[in-house]
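pinned: reference chain
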Amino acid sequence: MKNSVFFWSLVVALGGFLFGFDTAVISGAEKAIQQLWQLDSVAHGFTIAVALIGTVFGAIFGGIPSDRLGRRQTLVWIAVLYLVSALGAALTANWYAFLLFRFLGGLGVGASSVTAPLYISEVAPAAKRGQMVAMFQFNIVFGILAAYLSNYLLTGLGDNDWRWMLGVQAAPALAFLGLLFLVPESPRWLIGQGRVDEGRAVLRRIDPATAEQLTTDILTTNAADRAEGGSSLLARQYRTPVMLAVLFALFNQVSGINAIIYYAPRIFEMTGLGKSSALLSSAGLGLVNFIFTLLARQVIDRFGRRKLMLIGSFGLIATLGLVAWAFYSENFTAFGGMLVPGLLFVYIAFFAFSQGAVIWVFISEIFPNTVRAQGQALGSSTHWVMAALIAFAFPPLAEWLGGGNTFAFFCAMMVLQLLFVWRLMPETKGTSLEQLDKTLVLH
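pinned: its structure tokens
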């Protein structure tokens, strides 16, 4: 039975692999695309950003089909979006059609950041839920690495090598689509829809010993939540999980993570590194991210979400503070000019070990069954709106404020995150979703 849950989680986490691949694959194709359609800087920037715009919309509205169609059926449509986006972007000769296909891929990314963690949290046993949901984040990072490797291997295939870079994503998208038909619907969604016998049958496949009690617990908590606040996330009783999700997603981005990942070569060049060294250092960041995400996945259920966040917060404060100091003092020559790259490597390690691994796990756990899809959509959309703002704002901010003030701001935000974790963040490890409902929702 445990192997079944692991297989289901692994299949659904493939949505994370496609998420990471789709996000990163454009980096190898963007120059050829600009030349092909003779795009000026504004049109080129929009062409690259259109997928991110789709991601924001996918995250905002991703909870609606998850509630109405079911988690599994929504994932099937997400797989179709990835497949259509990959083939369409690779084959089209029209710029406007290319924009549409990249936007559809972005919708898939945003919706998968809502639905995949949601599904895994609802099928995983409490003791292993952290590891299972963290598999989604691990696959995002793995997908990013795979995209960079794929782009490298496909470079030089001819004038249309960029089409192969984008089109190769169709293979994992097709595999994702096919494997989803081997995965059952979420038992908690089924029970919430009144399909109690179907939900109980899935729970029996997960663990026959606890299926009856868990079915009763789900029915009881669903009835209590509906009686007190209905199924609206705006109800007073949900204000604690809403506050936790929004703040957690906000802190995830004001750490500066996307500014550093998107603009790593530029940051390294600001410290005097040559272009080739800057690009090599950027690839190193991806590898460190991968390794420490894998490590966090192994220990998240043993240490707990809160302890990982405390460790990460201290590490992020220290590394960002030292990077700010290096910019203020213009001390870039220490350690052979590798001071700032070295600090950012350590920064990525702390981020991957804490925020990177914990965010999708924590947000998927803190909302009750009746509003979990809405809550996941709220946390995910907050994350993506902030990601877009930080990505767009970083170049002018770094130019206006300077590197020292910019990194000092990120450092100050991580001090606030530390206070949030210390004073407000509850521990959720090893606790059933229904028990968390009782402790986090105002009854």
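why pinned: Residues 80 and 198 are 26 Å apart (CA to CA). The mean pLDDT is 89.
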